[in-house]
Amino acid sequence: MALAALLTVVLMTGGWEAWARSQGLRPADMDDSPQAWAQLRRQAGTARVAIVGDSRILFDTDLDRFKALTGEYPLQLSIVGSTARGLLEDLANDPSFKGLLIVGLADTSYFRPSGLGYGGMYMHSSERNGKPSQRSGLFLDRLLQPHFAFLDSVYRFSKLAIRPDHGWRKGPDSPYEDVWKISETYPNRQYRMWPQIETNPYLQYQARHAWDYFKGPKISNHVIAAVDVHTREAVSRIRARGGEVVFVRPPSARPIRVNEDKALPRAIGWDRMLRFAHAVGVHNDDLPPQVQNLTIPEFSHLNAACATVFTDAYVRRLTQLTPRLKLRVDAPPPLTRADCVKAG
Fold this sequence. Notes:
CATH topology: Rossmann fold
Largest sheet: 5 strands, parallel
Strand content: 5-15%
Strand order of the largest sheet: 2-1-3-6-7
């Protein structure tokens, strides 16, 4: 009976693993989690460079390219579905952080009236997600996920079983409205666009649908003024202990950008905020033409190859804006759109 049970488990596990790989899942892809974030967050006191923000700067930054250009490997503390403002204030309230903080933001997310989104779940968990059970769970994940693709949390059977429901039941929200898998995660929380979003039309359209084109009401002047004040205060606290803050606005595709601009025009959002905080930043619109019009498969995040190109462009610009980053003498040559977008 024991041999029969063992054989059954091996066959079923092997079958599930084979199916997972046929769906484009890869064993090197490790799930992100509050525990993985907390593990890096505890290193903030010794970090020379850290990045906070929402999912755009998380997807759109190639950490290896960053190091190749500057010699610095940044601490990636951005969180999907969060607001960069909450993470900025979290680091501003940490007296141990004295490095360069890069704040990546999507305008309407940064200027949301209230709430931290998923960032609250990551930041407010007990003892920074450092309980023994949480740390052991992270250890087991890191031990097994490099070998098994079926452990992907977004492709668990419990989640797949409800996905065929596209609003058949009246009342409950359809699972089709949720964000499904769009990313892969590698060591040090290096996010990449999941290749299936580029090649699978069904999954690509579902991801676009989940964003609802960033539709929303116009952000009030009262909220804008309050966010400007909070930003300046947070930047001032970090500077007072020897740190520095710079801002980065990654690209978004036109179907989403048009709604972002309606809700918050650049002049009264990004531009005014930088002036009020006496800060500098890199806006995608201001980068050279040769790094514009990159590939954004689901309209909000760059694919992996173009994320490297964008990282190359914004980091080079940052080295001109702050003495905290210097371009290495042996830095690789600049990248262009041709390095990630196929001709035609």
